[in-house]
Fold each of these.
Amino acid sequence: MLIAGETDYRRILKRELESRCQQNARYSLRAFARDLALPASRLSEVLNGKQGLSRERASGIATTLGFSASESDVFCDLVESQHARGRVNRELAKVRLEKNRINSSFHDLQLDAFQAVSDWYHFALIQLISLPEFKNDPAWISKALGISAVEARDAMERLERLKLIEVKRGKVTRLQEFVAVNEQTPSSAIRKFHRQVLERAMLALDNQPLEERSFSAIFVPIDKQRMVEAKRWIKNFRRRFCRKLDAGDANNSVYCLSVQFFNIKEAQK
DNA sequence: TTCACTCTACAATGAGACCG
DNA sequence: CGGTCTCATTGTAGAGTGAA
């Protein structure tokens, strides 16, 4: 959970609750309260802005939610700036937040990079831009990628901030290839990205005509030691595949090649 | 005095069992 | 299959407590 740039601790909690509800349809405010060791009535009041939290309670919540030390500090200061007993403590918390905000432009960029890597459509958008028919219009992008216009606009702004694209007088140019995935990329972002790609693949399986898609799977017994070799072959294949298809100026669609090669015996562990 | 906190109670809702 | 009942769960309101 990244809280950089967030100015309201309630939004952080609401976002976490929403995310848990999305992952589990049976998850509720009461379940969230149980996990945070908070009475449900209390959490209801807090989320609706009727009551606040103590710093001690905020710190406990930050620990439960797995915040890093610095995230926990920001979260507690956000709480304290609103609910600390005494004006002095509230003001001190505000000062700490302001100091943190000045140092946080770097963190904002990290948040951008995290979002760009973990949401599949940023990669697709980069490729979409190279099509002659591309229009720098959230509604057009929304229709082309099947995302909301707000997501489309945010993604364009994010790619611009990350200097992956340049927008001049409404004309968009790609500045560099997307190389955001490296050893610094959080594994949670990568997992989220792959999960989303697999979800898109399932949609394509159900909705796209056979002549417009190609799905295949094969099972093969292997010596685990040769996994490094296998990864190298897949990488080479992907590169050659893309080089061949990307050539020419007649491109009119963006396709996704997603390759999964995994241990079927241990997949459920 | 204020406000974080606990406890209890309430109405709304949904799932499941039962019956005709 | 439809109606009714029971029970669990939900979110929220309100009263009261205690610490700062």
Note: The CA atoms of residues 120 and 196 of chain A lie 6 Å apart.
Amino acid sequence: MALRLYNTLTCRVEEFIPGGEKKDKIEDYPPVTIYSCGPTVYSYAHIGNFRTFLFNDLLRRYLKFRGFRLNHAMNITDIDDKTIAGARNEKISLRNFTGRFTGIFFENLKMLNAEDVEHVPRATESVDSMIDILTRLHEKGFIYTKEGSLYFSIEKFHAYGKLCRLDRSGIKTGLRYDTDEYEKDDVRDFALWKAEDDPDVSWDTPFGRGRPGWHIECSAMIRKIFRGTIDMHTGGVDLIFPHHENEIAQSEAAYGDKFVRHWVHVEHLLVDGAKMSKSKGNFYVLADLLEKGYSPRSIRYLLISAHYKKQMNFTLTGLEQAGQALARIDNFTARLKDRFSSPEDCKELRECIEVFYKNFTDSVDDDINISMGIGAFFDFIHAVNSLIDGDRLSAKDAAGVMDVLRDIDRVFGFIFFPGETKSSLDEKEIERLVNERNSAKEKKNFTEADTIRDSLLKEGIILEDTKSGTRWKLKK
RNA sequence: GGCGUCGUACCCAAACGGCUAAGGGGAAGGUCUGCAAAACCUUUAUUUACCGGUUCGAGUCCGGUCGACGCCUCCA
């Protein structure tokens, strides 16, 4: 089966074909070129933002899992009205201001176990490419000037509105436009370059000093990194219009070739059934949730677990349930550390593994149906648990299952692997106490045994007695 | 006002017209165990907001009603 993805441009699920030319084997495809709209670094990113960014991460991890090579860029929007206003408020340079929030953003992503992407361009470092676009658009007559600002004339670009679900007439008659606010010929036109109003955040161009409009930044960074047509462009649904529509217009008008083959948009996250807002008190950034004691793993699991094209309702209850689901997985990995006595390798296990891989890839190949993929994973855990209960696994089998977990975690990124402990007690000390408790148990001195168990529990270590001995795990 | 999405059990969430509507959480009973925990087994939607229609067959398609949400404006 091939990977199929919904394309906003065509409004349907399509096979994903990097380079636009179908190959027999995935390895034969050129590296997948992806551009993901990144954050505007004027404040802390909230969990709604992270749903989108974690989807990008899931998508890239799955592409790699399936054998595609990647060339993935996510930009940092470090110049726009909000970053300028923020820097001005704090009376610091734009660079210092955006640098701080950029740093926090990447720390957050790391905590959520998102992989680094290949390119992280910044708008302020891509002005030369913007000038190239402006020059070409100017030569081709798509630009007009008003009071030192450059605007893109939509009338001149006939394909405008081709991104799915766009009705040109609807845009024009939108009720909430305040046309008086603009100096544009047509309300749908957009600013490519804004006239200088602050010498500290201005660049020279053949068309005068100023700063970029928002939309041109992405077009410029894409051109700079990838040169021509890219395979995939991702972002939140709110960017479809006008941001992505405008990117298509200016890029295709300037260069003539197709801008993006496959558009992928992630639905919004709601919190407690409503849009996040500070007044409602349902506005969360990552630090808020960590303070409440939730783990980044739970947050990652929850934000990833629902289908990306569906609005998702975020609740603290949901986070707790995600934590419980992870605990089930953790118990499984802890169990795989036990001693396995079966002398023979289990044939059924091999079947389980095959079935799991097939179900998993079939599911996720289908427009990243990760919910079903996770379902397949729990089916696998269940099946293996049953085999363990029946004393069917050899030590080699158990190691094989561990390999499967490591392999699949290249996609999930939320499985915890024991051995990477950070307890205050070291492992030898724990083993010693476990042995001490076991000899107490043999002497039927249960009071002493329970005392040891309780004291370990206080250190965050849970003991479990099994047929093959006592195992310990870290408390969540 | 225009365009669009969605409404599946106590909660979260799959199911691309066709065997008994995945999976996770929670709950209940059982097995194992000194106890506990974990795991395993069993149970928890004759039914998919509601009303009609198309079809041999619909959660899935069509029409209507109610409800939630999004875009049309800076926004992941």
Note: Chain A has a mean pLDDT of 91.
Amino acid sequence: MKQKSTSSGVKEIARRANVSIATVDRVIHNRTGVSEKTRRKIDLIIREMNYQPNILASRLASRKVFHFAILIPRVSEETDYWEAPLNGIQRATAAIKQYGINVDHYFYDLNDKKSFTRQTQIILKQKTDGVLMAPSFIEEAVHFAEECRKRNIPYVFINSDIPQQDSLCYIGPHLFQSGYLGAHLVNLGTSRKGKTLVVNISREIDNHHHLLRKEDGFRSYFKDHGSPQEIIKLDIRQTHYQAVSRKLSKTLRDFPDITAIFVTNSRVSTVASFLEKSGLENILLIGYDFLRENVRYLEKGTISFLICQQPEEQGYQGTMALYDHLVLGTQIEKVHFMPIDIITKENYEFYQTAK
Amino acid sequence: MKQKSTSSGVKEIARRANVSIATVDRVIHNRTGVSEKTRRKIDLIIREMNYQPNILASRLASRKVFHFAILIPRVSEETDYWEAPLNGIQRATAAIKQYGINVDHYFYDLNDKKSFTRQTQIILKQKTDGVLMAPSFIEEAVHFAEECRKRNIPYVFINSDIPQQDSLCYIGPHLFQSGYLGAHLVNLGTSRKGKTLVVNISREIDNHHHLLRKEDGFRSYFKDHGSPQEIIKLDIRQTHYQAVSRKLSKTLRDFPDITAIFVTNSRVSTVASFLEKSGLENILLIGYDFLRENVRYLEKGTISFLICQQPEEQGYQGTMALYDHLVLGTQIEKVHFMPIDIITKENYEFYQTAK
DNA sequence: CTGAAAGCGCTTACAG
DNA sequence: CTGAAAGCGCTTACAG
């Protein structure tokens, strides 16, 4: 069952090829300074033996430390969403730091493009072997991705994707599908007679195409199930309560038969607050993300469903993808869509309890 | 930022304590043969330095191979549920086999208690450092757990728990809560006028107390929300289609106002098949587990919701718990309840897509 | 283009 | 009770 240690490893390869282990090492790592003939001979033996390098020994002997740069939004009062990915990243860090991985964090402000660019510039000055980023600002992220590519630094996208950017991989939600699911929940939770309101709340509705992709998915469901005319749309470009409240009041006055509201992002708690204050709690409310505020309204019943996409796992798996690629040389899946979780009053306690 | 390598590690401890590294090693691993005085001195220095052993070096130098025994049901035609935990176990195995972990699988037949006992006996004859098991047969599992305890072999439960058995940990569903959630979904998906049918389908209803715990949760929801009298209960002790069909026919004839059926385990597809053939597809059907057959009916709309508990993660995390405990010496959480996922037609594609 | 030797930070016999 | 030395399977200068 178990091979004798003498019959595997670089030593054995060297013995069979009649060279030194240093030369074997050069071939294994595709380094220069080996004659074609020798290289071929060694390659052949490696294949024959189905040689698997011992990562323990490799990492121990190598003085090399890998530097990962994490570029994500700062956790703020306004949104504690990013706490979860950060936790996942820290969990991954704990698992791999033993193996000579250094993880540096660069936080930017979601309300300030400049801060994103500033952080990318710092990263590019640093010695960096891999990048994990949430590409919140498309243009800026594309530019940064180009710089990484030039330097041969692999980068992973989490939370939202920018396709065609040759990233190592994308780990995050399938936005269209999550909107589609949202519509399904509306359909389940209301009689089919009322109208449905879709609400985008964001200072950057036009830059944040991911909101629109969710809305598309939402509408598609109704198209597929035959009542697209019942959807009212409301864009709110100021995120504070007053603005949201004013806009909602008006819309609900104009359309008194609205029975469900779908908020395309985590700002659903603002809407919940409005409904509560207005005594409109029989309107079905659905939104995104496992934020403390949102969960509070879920508990109360003001919010019926939160759609979540395992942000903690996104951070964990994104970091591990860099590790697997850079350290273990594993092949990485280009796209990994997260499960679309439905959180309710009854199951929220068991969401994100992972250590 | 980075400490010079000379100022950390056993060598440095040895230097400071004025002893050899062999003695330091003895203290680190709590081995005998060190004077109290020396031990105390070294312990102090270790604490002062906040010394963290280098696992890479430790695993490399140590000739020790850890043997994990995995005791779970064989994947059968009847239920492919156990494919998922097995995948998780294999993913964990791939991640840790580099570090001298040997993982052996022992499969038993869910319809055959004896096969469980037989496998436990084989395991006990083997050199085993840790056990991961699904304790499907309580009595037999308790007995095996005792034997492990005698031998100082830690064991992890997945999928269902046996409390008070001093396991290293339990990783799996909170059964009561998942039943509670099932009732919530019934409530959402039906008008409150109809009756609800709870169906237990198992040859071993009385041994499999976990079915009953789900039923309890289910009933509690209605109690908390005020209509317990509307629940009809049906136990079916033969699992083949004919038996299920016969029983269901009769019950639905007796209670024509049943509008929802809650099946307490993965055999919900049998009920779905019956409803389909009987043209009763407007009855809301809810059950458990992401099996191919179940998903087929989810797609068709015959089943509205499947409740799932990340079986793949149970396998992965269970295996890693053994690793963390035995190899890294990490403190392990006693109980880790899995998230309770709700799977629908719209989100099933994104469930269990993890590699 | 190639090899001998030292070393990564531990563990393991073995000798005293 | 303690220590010197070899070795785990690699990588890394360095010398030729």
Note: The CA atoms of residues 27 and 153 of chain B lie 23 Å apart.
Amino acid sequence: MQEVTQLRKGIQGSATQATLLDKLRKLVLSGEYPPGAPLPELFLAEEFEVSRTPVREALKQLENEGLVEIRPKVGTFVRIPTRREIVELFQLKESLEGLAAGLLARRGPVPELEILKRNIEESERAERRADTGKYAELVHEFHWTIVQGSDNSKLVEHYGRLMNQLAYHRIVLETVERPARMRASIREHQSVVDALLEKDPVGAELAMRGHVNASSLAASRGADAGSVTGAEKEA
Amino acid sequence: MQEVTQLRKGIQGSATQATLLDKLRKLVLSGEYPPGAPLPELFLAEEFEVSRTPVREALKQLENEGLVEIRPKVGTFVRIPTRREIVELFQLKESLEGLAAGLLARRGPVPELEILKRNIEESERAERRADTGKYAELVHEFHWTIVQGSDNSKLVEHYGRLMNQLAYHRIVLETVERPARMRASIREHQSVVDALLEKDPVGAELAMRGHVNASSLAASRGADAGSVTGAEKEA
DNA sequence: CGTAGTTTTGATGCATGCAAGAAGTCACTC
DNA sequence: GAGTGACTTCTTGCATGCATCAAAACTACG
């Protein structure tokens, strides 16, 4: 095993660490390792055919991102999220996306606007086809486009962290954008774009915040309904 | 040296790592290691009388916090901040503190209000005495009290990261709350508290954002004036 | 004198050994 | 049978060695 590793290191360069972190993050986010599951360094090291050292570093990073909990001298575990945290994260989401929309509106004519318009059209098609998978993907894109269009790298950075923590709760949230809300959600997207077209920062921010808020309300209601049932589906 | 370390480990438990991280962070934030300075693992290891491993972990953490930059296979360096980043961070600060003020206003009667009122009184005294040190400290406290009063742990967490990155730019920013702005700043604090007393979330948020925005404008103007001159003062 | 190729240096990235500690297990006592 | 104590096991935390690689220094050549 040692020789194999050495070889791969020689070939791949030091992309090992970043790759490893990504893999681990994906496994936690997807629920492959469910909340509460232990993540022993040695086990993961063998799993990924590296030594404990890079695994350790990756785990520390994940702890920093809020996905796992390291109990000193005991072990690392996938964090168990609380409902309260979800509410808190949605409050943050609202604020950050509102900021992004406002900044984007201030930027004048930007390519993002075309992308958003097309996104809405596609969303409508997906809604008509009742293609919830495609729809969810488009929603995700819509929000990210606005954030990245804010042209504020620090905002993007913090938003990314936030979304990682929220994506982690996707288990709970996947039931969210259910058909009943899809139409309303699209209308809200449209009004955000309208404000952007009119270069109205305040309007854009308010529209965005209203939208996120509405989604979050639907989300928490959804979570109340069937929270645990969908937990193992993704794995 | 090895035995000494072993001993200390036995005595102190595993508080070593957290302590080390704090020390390193402080050294970077204070400018002891100025922007651009290299941070070789071996050097730091000897400096703190530990091995490279814990140093490495601490450095990775600092990279994650945006304070240092790790160039693979080359080395770690104290990050050189750009002016643009400062603007970006202030935009985020405005948004997050606005959110916090709004949330706090929604919470009804809370002990934080008394703290804030006292803070303003003390600030006025400090202003009359032209005690800029005390005044800066009070401003810091004011803002943190509001954020922590939001009762949103995730907000506090993200705000903390943000402020670390901003504190890092303190070198540039310290010239900010100059006497000319102190009185205006206190008035703005007062209007925030007024809105809080009236349990007016929207008003509180707007007041807070207006205040942060005004500070940030003053800050960037200050930075434009004498940015580099004060750089070594703090070290 | 400038430039390309080569060597040397110095730092990181990873693997591994060892000690310390926490948690669960088992036996022993009352 | 229940509770308490020692013990075993499993895991982390840290130290250190070695291979790798980037960049600087040096040399030779045009």
Note: Chain B touches chain A at residues 14, 53, 56-57, 60-61, 64, 66, 72-73, 85, 88-89, 91-92, 94-96, 98-99, 103, 152-155, 157-158, 161-162, 165 (CB under 8 Å).
